[in-house]
Design brief:
single chain, alpha/beta, seven-stranded mixed sheet, 8 helices
Length: 442
């Protein structure tokens, strides 16, 4: 079944998010015809021209999936509602040329050990650690080794294959390093080796993290044993489930030794959920700065347009340490993930993992990249101060956006076209109608 057939089939029961652009280069002048001649090649040299919107917008989408033992329901919810994500991506009349890849939150996992005869232990996950994955069974076995790891919008049966990709099983690390896994996926050495071809020159990047625990990114992995953060603290009482651990924040019933479940479980403290533990992790700012300054790969020195979305444990109304709903229970409030999203500003979004359905959340996340916030101009104006955009949004008065007051202008550089990036109240939304005008002095 083709992507268009999938969308047509689902459209009768799912909301359609549309982004309509009415774009033309109009002229506003007070003294008759205006000649802006004398401009160099590639610059608008007459006051009447047409603005050609790009035929498509490239978007690379990286899902970071928590594949720890508590994630069965949450992964299934994404699988069930992924069609709403894809529908929103393709609903814009500016074609969304997207790619999808999946990594897990597993990088490494440190355990302090329990008792004199159980020394500290560090487990590495070299087959994950930011490497793009294939779909897996619940136990973590690859379903089909011939599956590709990067899906494109033109891939036959892209929805079904994407649903298989986001199913990563529940046999992964209990120390969830979502931000670190994302960093490794889009930087060297993986970006030019195991993940080569995922990040395309000039494409936007959307990182989507799904996890029921907070980020516990320790970039040192299993190196430097003296300074490692052990997520399992001192041994407590034996237990069968978390309710026997006194309800203390961050105290859970975990396997005494993860590589030997026969030893049973004990009440232990997850150091990632303590202020002291978080202070020893890689700072959130490190990852946000990486995303905000990621090179766009065109050789022009321009920064890539990057978005971060998290479906995480942010609704803690029932308990300061957890969010709860009728169908799921999430571990740990996502303090670090929320901080990362907040620092991303308008390019960040966080949704609760405790929602009964993820349809609305996935639609919101896709809407981040449904309306392109950066638009290339077919021709550059003689002076960007002459540009202004009008945005018609519903029945309200049109918004007038000028350079520095609603959009930023970048001149042509190294063969790349001039472009504008909308910001603040002028950020484009689904349903906006956009026109570009040039004000000329006579």
């Amino acid at each position: 079944m083709s992507l268009l057939e999938v969308v047509a089939k689902k459209r009768s029961t799912s909301p359609r998010v549309a982004l309509l652009f009415a774009a033309g280069l109009l002229t506003s002048m007070s003294l008759g015809a205006c000649d802006c001649g004398g401009a160099p090649d590639g610059v608008v040299d007459q006051c009447q021209s047409e603005l050609a919107l790009p035929p498509s917008v490239a978007t690379d989408i990286l899902f970071v999936i928590d594949n720890s033992g508590s994630m069965r329901e949450e992964q299934q919810k994404v699988v069930d509602e992924l069609h709403t994500f894809v529908e929103t991506l393709v609903s814009s009349p500016i074609r969304n040329d997207f790619q999808i890849g999946v990594v897990t939150t597993g990088v490494s996992q440190n355990f302090a050990g329990c008792g004199e005869n159980q020394p500290p232990q560090c487990i590495q996950y070299p087959e994950e650690s930011g490497l793009l994955q294939r779909g897996k069974t619940l136990g973590g076995q690859v379903i089909d080794p011939s599956d590709v790891t990067v899906l494109s919008s033109s891939t036959p049966d892209v929805l079904a294959l994407a649903q298989r990709l986001v199913g990563q099983g529940i046999g992964g690390a209990g120390q969830e390093m979502g931000l670190e896994a994302a960093r490794r996926a889009i930087t060297e050495p993986l970006s030019s080796s195991g993940n080569a071809g995922f990040l395309r020159p000039g494409a936007r990047l959307l990182v989507v993290i799904l996890s029921d625990e907070d980020d516990c990114s320790d970039a040192r992995g299993c190196e430097d044993p003296a300074s490692r953060l052990f997520i399992q603290g001192a041994c407590g009482n034996t237990c069968q489930d978390d309710s026997e651990c006194g309800g203390a924040a961050g105290s859970y019933c975990l396997y005494e030794r993860p590589t030997d479940p026969s030893r049973g479980r004990r009440c232990t403290v997850n150091a990632c959920e303590s202020a002291e533990g978080r202070a020893r992790l890689e700072p959130v700012e490190t990852y946000v700065q990486l995303l905000q300054n990621l090179d766009d790969g065109t050789g022009t020195g321009r920064r890539r347009e990057v978005f971060l979305a998290v479906i995480g444990a942010v609704d803690a109304s029932a308990s300061p340490a957890r969010c709860r709903s009728e169908v799921t229970e999430a571990y740990g409030v996502a303090v670090r993930y929320k901080a990362a999203v907040d620092q991303m500003g308008q390019n960040g979004l966080i949704e609760s993992i405790c929602n009964e359905s993820y349809a609305a959340s996935l639609a919101k996340i896709a809407a981040l990249v449904n309306a392109p916030q950066t638009v290339d101009l077919a021709r550059a104006p003689p002076d960007p101060r002459l540009l202004f955009f009008e945005i018609v949004r519903g029945t309200a008065e049109p918004l007038r956006c000028r350079q520095g007051e609603g959009f930023e202008y970048e001149p042509p550089v190294g063969g790349a076209p001039a472009r504008v990036t909308f910001k603040d109240s002028c950020r484009l939304q689904p349903g906006d109608q956009l026109s570009l005008k040039v004000v000329c002095a006579g």
